[in-house]
Amino acid sequence: MRPTSLTYSGAVGAPIEEVFALLTDPNRFPEWLPYCHAVKPALRPNRKGERHRLMFQNAKRKTTVEIEIIEFTPPTGYGWVELQHRAGAKTFFKLQFAGGATLVSMKHVWTPPTWRAWLLGQLYRRRGAHRMFDGLLQNLRKVLTH
Predict the structure, then answer these.
(1) Within the chain, how many helices (H) and strands (E) appear?
(2) pTM for the full model?
(3) pLDDT tens per residue, range 94-119
(4) How does 60-92 read in b/e, with b if 16+ C-beta sit within 10 Å?
């Protein structure tokens, strides 16, 4: 199966170092990551290979997701892979200097494990992906400007 990917970007009115510090601090994930309400961070959180356990909750369900850091390139790149539920789904953040702001690009990559998963992925393409990224971007702006 070929991977599918979604990419979104937007600007945050804060220096790149502050945005990177917020994105990579697992204790602060609930401040900006939609529906994340708790995190059990790794002992040494800012290293490739470290794993964090994220707890998500919305009106309909609760779930726990374990992620492994696969990219840590200060101050421009951060990424993780999910180890359960959507095993193999990767999320990457790229940061770029944009004058007095930072351009944040998020890329979500998923390789369907079966034909059925591929078909369901086509029919129900992350319907809320754009809304989720918009919420994430708004949360980053709110945290970094207050």
Answers:
(1) 4, 7
(2) 0.89
(3) 999 998 899 999 999 988 888 888 88
(4) eeeeebbbbbebbeebeebbbbbeeeeeebbbb
34: enclosing H helix or E strand: none
Which domains are present in the chain?
Answer: 4-145 (3.30.530.20)
- Based on its alpha-carbon atoms, the radius of gyration of the chain, rounded to whole angstroms, reads 15
> In whole angstroms, what is the distance from residue 88 CA to residue 82 CA?
6
With tokens 């994430």, the residue in question is: 136
Q: For residue 139, how many other CB atoms are within 10 A of its CB?
A: 17
- H-only helix segments in the chain: 16-24, 29-32, 115-123, 129-145
Residues contacting residue 90 through CB under 8 Å, at least 6 positions apart: 70, 79, 80, 81, 82, 108, 109, 110
110 burial via Cβ count (<10 Å: 0-12, 13-18, 19+) = buried
